[in-house]
Each structure stands twice: as C-alpha cells, then as structure tokens.
Amino acid sequence: MFDLDLYPPAKAALARLRQEPALQKRFKAVSKALRLLASNPRHPGLQTHEWHGDLCPHGGKMFEAYAENRTPGAYRIFWCYAPTPRTILVIDIVPHP
Q1: How far are the Cα atoms of 71, 87, 92 from residue 64, in angstroms, in the given order?
Q2: Rounded mean pLDDT of 58-76?
Q3: 28, 16, 39, 42: CA torsion to nearest 10
C-alpha cells in the first residue's frame, strides 16, 4: 500500500467533483482510481504510463493514470513517486480534452 499526498490542484479538483451534483459519477470513478493507485500503481485498470510532458516537483518522472476510459472528457490522474518511501504525490486530476 502507498500513502497518497494530494497537491493543492488535485485537492481542489477532488473537492469540486465531490460538491458538484452533476459530477457524482465522475467523483466515484476518480475515488475508485485513487484507491487502486494506493494499492497498486500498476493496476491494469489504471492504464498507468509515463507522462513525457512535465516533471514531478522534485524532478522525478511523472505518470498518468486513467480514472475513466472511452468517455468524453474522461478524467486523468497525474502523479509521481515521492522521495518518501511508499508515498505517491497526486499532482492533478483533470478531464482529458
């Protein structure tokens, strides 16, 4: 198991999903994906892969995980491994364009 540390943009996105009644289905999908990420970052349902855009705040590799798939505006979770053992930094949770 990993501990999840949510950066401010990820916290704000999760709070917005939780509070907006029209986004409850998406909130459930993101919550499930976060649970899977904490238990196994390489879970096949997450389709985790390296993100070749930005680097993690501490300079490590950034990864993208799917919270939803085959859905317009499907949510993605951007994360990296923290310098602290067994900790994942969730950088942002965003809809896919």
Answers
A1: 16, 16, 10
A2: 91
A3: 90
